[in-house]
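Posting for a labmate who doesn't have an account.
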Amino acid sequence: MGLTDKEQLYVAKLAYFDVDVEGEKYQDLVDENDGQPPTMQQWVDYNYKEYVCVAMGVDPNKVDDNIDIEEFIASQNLSINQQETINMLNAVKGGEVLKDWKLLDARNENQTTGFVGYLLETDTGEAVVGFRGSEF
């Protein structure tokens, strides 16, 4: 069936956010889904504060856990790219796009080979690979 332009753009942008399929966050969502991989909507919702901070160039560990993230976003002087990235996160979190796409796998070999990518399954069962350019 193919991807829309918006889906292609969002898959490419999402590749710049770290995913650890071996980590506790991913496993928590798998457990909540009775052993099934999380959807992108679930994943972005679960990691929203961290991903927004990364999009704004702010260390998420230096932001108070109790902060109202929407007020924090509004208080920042964001570039167009930062605002577009946050809009994308909001669209995925809100289920407007990629809602039922499953996050099947991810690899982060940035420190050794420079490769970072992930594997998604669309709501129609197609496989999609998202990856970012290396930093080498």
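Reply:
Got it, the structure tokens are right above this. The helical segments are 5-14, 24-32, 40-46, 48-56, 69-74, 80-93.
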